[in-house]
Give the backbone structure.
Amino acid sequence: MQIDFSKLEPLERYRWLASTITPRPIAWVSSLSKEGASNLAPFSFFQVINDDPATLLVNINHREDGSYKDTLINVLESGELVIHLVDFEHAEQMNASSAQLAHGVSEFEQCGIASVSSTQVKPPRVAGAAVAFECRLAQSMPYPPQAPNCHLLFAEVLVAHIDERVLDEKGRADPQRLDLVGRLGGMSYTRTRDVFTMVRPT
Ligand SMILES: Cc1cc2nc3c(=O)[nH]c(=O)nc-3n(C[C@H](O)[C@H](O)[C@H](O)COP(=O)(O)O)c2cc1C
């Protein structure tokens, strides 16, 4: 089977990409509006793209009417965000926080998600998240340039919070204890506990 992407409707392109490029990590992003309302939402078009400086990339689509999602509005205005990783224990809350609420209504409050203050940025963190990266917006790029339908956010990590409960005896992150979820196609998710190792060739 061969699929000519130029002949597909956008939704079909999305479905083929989202159901094959799997599992995708989920950035659970908190941000703060200029009026001071906290916001929390998940994004799975997400990756680490550099380690010097430590940089994460999040894609935020524009809404169908061209308006910006609350996360995008807040991050463009404030230049700050916190990116959490999502473990199985928080999967339901992550999903609940994807609801489209009115601007200024906090998913933390609406979904009963406890927060704590961050140390270097203003948006609060998810209290129970085992991994959280406080970030500053290094660059934002509307994409594609000729007719943008999303923004790519380049987020530089300022400080990472790693809960000691997910560390192994050597003090490294243990995938079994992390128990992160990955996004598959449609409504499906996976857990990252099925681990095998391979030695790299010299
Ligand atoms: C698992 C998951 C992954 C998602 N990934 C993305 C994504 O990569 N890009 C995007 O624009 N929206 C994505 N969404 C949808 C947003 O979370 C949703 O539009 C949300 O309402 C945005 O919230 P906000 O307006 O508070 O920023 C995803 C939703 C879920 C549940």
